[in-house]
Every structure is written in structure tokens, then in C-alpha cells.
Amino acid sequence: MSTKEEAPGLALYVHVPFCARRCHYCDFAVTRSPDPPVDEWLASIDADLSEWRRELCGTDLPALDTIFVGGGTPTLLGARGMESLGDCLARHFRWDEETIEWSAEANPNSLTADTAIAWRGIGVNRLSLGVQSFDDRALQWLGRLHDGREACEAVERALTAGFDNLSLDLIFGLPQEIERSWQADLHKALELGVVHLSTYGLTAEPETPLGRNVAHGRVALAGQEQYVEEYLLGVNLLGSHHFTHYEVSNFARSGYECRHNWHYWIGTEYLGVGPSAHSYIRGQRTWNVRDWQAYRAAALAGETVREGRELPSGEQRRMEALWLGLRTRRGIDLDRFGISEAIVAGWISDGRAIRQGARVKLTPHGWLVLDDMVAELAARTTEDE
Ligand code: SF4
User: Fold this and answer.
1) Ligand 1 centroid – CA 133 distance (Å)
2) 196 CA from centroid of ligand 1 (Å)
3) Given Cys at both, which of 55, 158, 260, 285 links 66, Cβ 3.0 to 4.6 Å?
4) Within the chain, where are the H helices?
5) Are residues 245 and 337 in the same domain?
6) Which atom of ligand 1 is nearest to the CA of 25?
């Protein structure tokens, strides 16, 4: 898939809003629920999809290219919940079992061998494990429910179940006082033989326990120097092990880039169902009610679960496409975005970008300051108007 026109179907995101416990740094749309109401959730997802059918004038929803079941903790659905979700989706969509990319997120402590085997049998063919670290102290500090040994065992269970397309999430930029070795975690991930890694820098969102601790001076996050050092360590180490750095935070062995995320980055239509899920259909952006109880109540009462919608202006779409394009290894076409040669020359001369014919793509040094670069371009556009 290289352009919007070539997209072979729709990308579907399904949000599972349950976690057994909330991690200290998490501000996702989740509710604490070790034993979630799976049947109510399934009925709500079905109602959400039916609302889409009505909204799109009763036509059949299009064929799917990718399914991504994220959260939250989808492993809390167990085998039966994922199977029922598959049945629900099959009532609304069609897809080619040979070519669909069906991803699911999983947490190490709730990915049992039975769940892994059952999910693989149902058709899930890509797993993203929320490992974050193999260091017990770091995991405890983050508020995760697993330890390093359990993370390794979960990887083994996933591989044994047949998930050769296995990704791990890892967090860098932890406070120095934890004495976590980022390099050791990267080496452990490589040793386990996974084909995809997503690395994220820790941020302190204000409404989280971590954010409050940082605001009150009880915790000091990693400084900028450590953040940059660890990001570049990941880039260099993974590059030397034949991982392509294909997006700011994502690295993959050949053939294992996440197709679902490419849909977002190249601007194809996508559908999201579940609390807080966003969609982009027919030029319109919509988003669902964030709170699980409010979402459930609306869905089961036959009311709308949409909280908002907007038709982005041409300029909004242009800036978003610019930002998304610059996130990826493909970069952007200079002619399409009308960026001056002088600006690009500045980026290249200080190592933030490289030129490839009519395209420009950012280097890892550029990706570290991507938001600032796009903000600068937006400010110049406003000045020129
Ligand atoms: S497992 Fe993920 S979604 Fe759940 S609380 Fe932790 S960070 Fe948030």
C-alpha cells in the first residue's frame, strides 16, 4: 500500500476500555475492571457498528484491510470475547482471511497460553505486547502488573502460539534514580527474536499519578539529554540489527511494518468503534464518548455514541498530512506542500532532514523535534496569509 488510491480496504480500530489496574503514567480511555463486562461491551460495539451502517445510508460497510483491537487490555476479553468480537465484525464487514492484518494488543500477565492459541486460531495474526521493560524495578515504578520474567514468558507463549508477527512496546526516558538500563532492555527484546518494536518516551500527563508527582516535585523525569541519548541508542542499535526505522517510534524487520498504522499516516479512511474511538470517513472526523459507562448507556439505549464531529478545512488537512508524512520514512513531497527550498536547505544543513529527489524525509534528529518543525511551518503559513 503506497498511496491512498491503492488502499485495498478500510482500517478498523476496536477499543477495549478495560484494565485490571491503571498504570501510574496512563491517561488512556480505560476503566479499572479486572473482570470486565464482556457481553455488554460486545453489545455496545455491535450497536456502534449498526449506527455506522445507518449513518452510511444502510449500505454494506466496506471490506476491511486491517483490524486493530487495542486498549486498554484486550487480553481481558479472553478467547471467548475475541471469538464473539470476530462474529460481530463478520456481521458488518467482509475481509479476506488470507490477507487481513488483524492485530491485537496484549498484556504479559493476562496473555495465557490458551488465549494466545485461541486468538491465533480465530484469525488474529499480529500481536503487540505491552512489555515496556524487562527490569522489575522499572515495571514496579510504572505500576505494571507483570515482572521481567513474566514478560519473557509471555513472549515465549506468543511465539509458541504462532505469532511470528510479534511486536513489543518499550518505554524509554525513565528517571535515572531507577537505574534501569535501556540498552539491556533493547538487547533482551532482540534476543527474544521479535520482528517489531515500538519505543515511546515517558511523558507525564497532568491527570495521572505520575503527572501529579512530577508537578509536586516528588519525581523528576529524565532530562532532555538522557531522552535524546536513549532515543538515538534505540535507533542505532535496532538499525544495526536490520530493523527499519519506519516511523518516529516504530521499527520493523523487513515485511513486518504495521499496515494498520500506515492507513493513519497516509490519510486513508478509517473507522473506530468503542469508547473514545476516532473515525475519518468521507472527509469527516468523528469521535465517540470517552467514558465507558456513558458509552455503554448510550449504545444499549439505541442512542448515538458519537460525541463530536468536524469537517476539517483544507488547511487543517494540509497541515495534518504534512505532520503525518514527516513522521514516516516516506517523508513528504515538497511540491505538494509548497515548502520553500530555503527552509529545506536549513533542515538539511543541520542534520534534521535528507532530500530524495522531490521528497524530503526527516532523520532521527529531525524526528526528535518534529512538532517544533511543523509548528514553525504553520506559523510561517499564517504569517504569509
Ligand atoms: S495497561 Fe496500558 S491502557 Fe492499561 S492502564 Fe496500563 S498503560 Fe493504561
Assistant:
1) 14
2) 20
3) 260
4) 38-55, 78-92, 113-122, 136-142, 148-160, 182-191, 209-215, 224-240, 259-266, 292-300, 314-327, 334-337, 341-349, 364-367, 370-384
5) no
6) 7
| Per-residue pLDDT of the chain in tens (385 residues, 90 and over written 9) | 543 445 579 999 999 999 999 999 999 989 999 899 999 999 999 999 999 988 887 666 679 999 999 999 999 999 999 999 999 999 999 999 999 999 999 999 999 999 999 999 999 999 999 999 999 999 999 999 999 999 999 999 999 999 999 999 999 999 999 999 999 999 999 999 999 999 999 999 999 999 999 999 999 999 999 999 999 999 999 999 999 999 999 999 999 999 999 999 999 999 999 999 999 998 999 999 999 999 999 999 999 999 999 999 999 999 999 999 999 999 999 888 888 889 999 999 999 999 998 899 999 999 999 999 998 888 876 666 5
Cβ(31) to ligand 1 under 6 A? no
Q: Is 198 in the pocket of ligand 1 (CB under 6 A)?
A: no
Residue 135 shares a structural domain with residue 196:
yes
Nearest residue (CA) to ligand 1, atom 8: 26
By residue count, the chain amounts to 385
Q: In this structure, are 65 and 192 located in the same domain?
A: yes
What is the 270 CA–ligand 1 centroid distance (Å)?
Answer: 23
Examine residue 256 and state whether it is found in any structural domain, yes or no. yes
Instruction: Tell how far the Cα of 104 is from the centroid of ligand 1, in angstroms.
Output: 14
